[in-house]
Amino acid sequence: MRVALATEAAPGRPNEDFAAVSADAAVLLDGAGTPAGSESGCSHGVAWFARTLGSSLLAVMTQKHETLPELLAGEIKAMAGLHEDTCDLGHPGSPSATVVMLRRTDDALEWLVLADSSLVLDTGDSAEPMVIYDDREAQVGARYRSAMDALDSGSPQHQAAHRDYVEALRAHRNRDGGFWVAATDPLAADQALTGTVPRESVRTVVLLSDGASRLVDRFHLATWRQALNLLDQEGPEALISRVREAEHSDPGGSRWPRGKTFDDATVVTLSLP
């Protein structure tokens, strides 16, 4: 298996994405950042949460035989135990992250997607690849984002509106009818999208945080097939570079309204023999 991985923080901010790969497993987490002026109830921070949970998930995927949701539930519970004595885990802004998990067995690829990072499976026998994306947060967010999207992304007013938007979403986090992320509740793992595909049918797998997938799903500057071709020919750094070019071309969000002018971007590509 050939692996290529690239990650780049949004300018001026710590990277809250995490990705790692072993011989038979891969994981990507995108931590949900806390806007300036908002509280999280946690002294450790989102980057710590994503890095610690992601590392433990990669380890247990190759050491244990439980299903991916069972493994995720167990590690969410274990994470809570790491900081329940020092942090307010009941706070609605307690650190959380999207999760993509992939495990390779002798004859299959098992996958799990929770929240809005993306998993792309290229079988090579169709015009467009199979894309797994959990859009429940986007569906909820559509109710609240009009005021934010009407403002210049570089303005203090937009920053305040983004903070209000994030805090409004917190009321729907890990609730029926809302959206689900890895945070403090192990039951969120049962809400993940999961599946299995024959190993021999897939030639390339790509894991992307939403800061990287925005080239396709928000900016619409490439199809998924074009993005895969770019990754194959030039690597994940090239895709992230295209994202940054688009972000710089629209700093005020007039063409592509968005909460974050720039976002952490992470891409993992796995080419299977």
TrEMBL record:
Q: Pfam families recorded for this chain?
A: PP2C_2
InterPro entries, alphabetized: PPM-type-like_dom_sf, PPM-type_phosphatase-like_dom
Q: What residue stretches are annotated with the PPM-type phosphatase domain?
A: 12-236
Q: Give TM segment ranges.
A: none
- Can you name this protein? PPM-type phosphatase domain-containing protein
